[in-house]
Amino acid sequence: MPIIKVENLTKNYRRQIRNGGFVGSLQNLFNAKYEIKTAVNDISFQIDEGEVIGYLGPNGAGKSTTIKMLSGILLPTSGNIEVNGLIPYKNRKEHASKIGVVFGQRTQLWWDIPVSESLNLMRYMYNVSEKQYRAKFEYLYGLFGYR
Ligand SMILES: Nc1ncnc2c1ncn2[C@@H]1O[C@H](COP(=O)(O)OP(=O)(O)OP(=O)(O)O)[C@@H](O)[C@H]1O
Ligand SMILES: [Mg+2]
């Protein structure tokens, strides 16, 4: 049973063509010109529950754009996506509460607050009960011994 279904997914970005110099900046303001960039071009795939997938491609191939559409951050230009029975961009909140996404090697921890406070914040975001949170926290504290 596929848990992720992607059918004929396409994403076009609209990008302003910017001119340099003083005249150019006036043209940018009053006579803006745009170009269409196709970042994801008609892709289809299905992923079954429990499958572990690597999604590879050269820089600019459209990997991040695909993940952003799968996570509901971006609206597809055309095509269909279903994840866990939900359409990501239509059921954005419910969908986001059930998935985890990490972009660009950034972690879910924030530099300026202690690890325990980062984790506690995630507890509210993911609606984890106090009891379950305590148990997991003590387990991790036992492993790493660091607050
Ligand atoms: N917000 C945006 N507006 C316009 N063009 C964009 C935008 N985001 C990405 N692009 C363009 O869409 C194409 C796909 O970009 P994307 O970031 O999805 O590629 P990627 O496969 O994740 O690349 P990388 O391996 O460098 O992370 C690129 O040509 C990029 O310049
Ligand atoms: Mg990327």
Pick out its properties.
147 residues; alpha+beta; 3-stranded antiparallel sheet; 33% helix; extended; binds adenosine-5'-triphosphate; binds magnesium ion
Task: Provide an overview of this structure.
This protein has 147 residues and is an alpha+beta fold. The chain folds into two domains: 105 residues, Rossmann fold; 41 residues, no CATH class. Helices cover 33% and strands 26% of the residues. The protein contains five helices and three strands. A three-stranded antiparallel β-sheet has the order 2-1-3. The model has no long low-confidence stretch (mean pLDDT 89). Bound molecules: adenosine-5'-triphosphate and magnesium ion (MG). Magnesium ion binds next to α2.
Hetero compounds: adenosine-5'-triphosphate, magnesium ion
Residue share in helix: 25-40%
Q: What is the residue-mean pLDDT, rounded to a whole number?
A: 89
Named at the architecture level, the CATH assignment of the largest domain is 3-Layer(aba) Sandwich
CATH topology title of the largest domain = Rossmann fold
Number of E-state strands: 3
Instruction: Kindly report the name of the CATH homologous superfamily of the largest domain.
Output: P-loop containing nucleotide triphosphate hydrolases
Sheet-strand content, in percent, reads 25-35%
Structural domains: how many: 2
SSE order: EHEHEHHH
Determine the number of helices (DSSP H or I, runs of at least 4 residues): 5
Computed over alpha carbons, the radius of gyration is 21 Å
Amino-to-carboxy terminus distance: 41 Å
Give the spatial strand order of the biggest sheet.
2-1-3
